[in-house]
Design goal:
By secondary structure, this protein is of the alpha/beta class. It is built from seven helices and ten strands. It has one domain: LmbE-like (Rossmann fold), CATH 3.40.50.10320. The two termini are 26 Å apart.
Length: 244
């Protein structure tokens, strides 16, 4: 619940798979955590589901030009955060479906990369106050990831063509209304800010306001965790694979 004390996670996973809907989602939600873990030696792979082809208010913008621009922004942000590798699934914005095909592709990614931890959207978070309701792509992708982690990726008879089964230790969900843990990003808040700034197509014209909100939000979470800046997560542990 909002305002309650948050337990700080201090363990560093060996391998982390971040799966987010749009090109800037990981940076906004978990950029400080990705940078922190990368500096500590975690191997990080990022999967971006959507092209980012509709992320503009311009009536004259070209979807293809925007796709190429946002790819370059992902590349720059990944270098800032120390992401080891990334891929884009190529789904058009607004068209993410929790489908068998999407779950098969996520299971294949999990089994190939074999992460200790998967980080994604919290699909149960719908309404944030009276000013924002969660993007459909976030909700659909978050649920597809959860369905892919349990039971699919750890059960050999699900999608046997997708590789050898793998149990994930933890799923950490960002953009949640049910946060139960936090990660101290006081040492990487600048990297988070810089990675968000690299998404110029999204922050252009409102950069100062967006970055100030980002800092204020991290400070509020940090207060709940007893540190200067933090990112909040809802963590779910796999009882069959409890340790990093």
């Amino acid at each position: 619940m909002a305002g309650e004390k948050l337990h700080l996670i201090r363990e560093t996973p060996r391998r982390l798979l971040a799966i987010f809907a749009h090109p800037d989602d990981a940076d906004i939600g978990v950029g400080g955590t990705l940078s922190l873990f990368s500096k500590a030696g975690t191997v990080i792979r990022l999967i971006v589901a959507c092209n980012g082809d509709k992320g503009t208010l311009s009536e004259s913008a070209s979807s293809q030009d925007l796709i190429e621009l946002r790819k370059s922004e992902v590349d720059e942000a990944s270098r800032i955060l120390g992401v080891s590798e990334y891929s884009l699934l190529g789904i058009d914005d607004g068209e993410v479906e929790n489908s068998v095909a999407l779950r098969r592709s996520i299971v294949a990614e999990v089994r190939a990369f074999r992460p200790d931890v998967v980080v994604t959207h919290d699909p149960s978070a719908h309404f944030f106050g009276t000013t924002y309701f969660n993007h459909r792509d976030h909700r659909e992708l978050g649920m597809a990831v959860l369905d892919s982690i349990f039971p699919a990726s750890g059960s050999p008879l699900y999608f046997p063509e997708a590789g050898r089964s793998h149990q994930v230790s933890y799923v950490m969900m960002s953009g949640t209304l049910e946060a139960n843990v936090a990660i101290d990003i006081s040492s990487t808040i600048d990297a988070k800010r810089d990675s968000v700034r690299s998404h110029r197509s999204q922050v252009q014209g409102d950069e100062e306001h967006i970055l100030e909100n980002l800092i204020v939000g991290a400070r509020q979470v940090g207060k709940r965790a007893g540190v200067t800046y933090a990112e909040a997560f809802r963590i779910m542990a796999n009882p069959k694979a409890m340790n990093f």
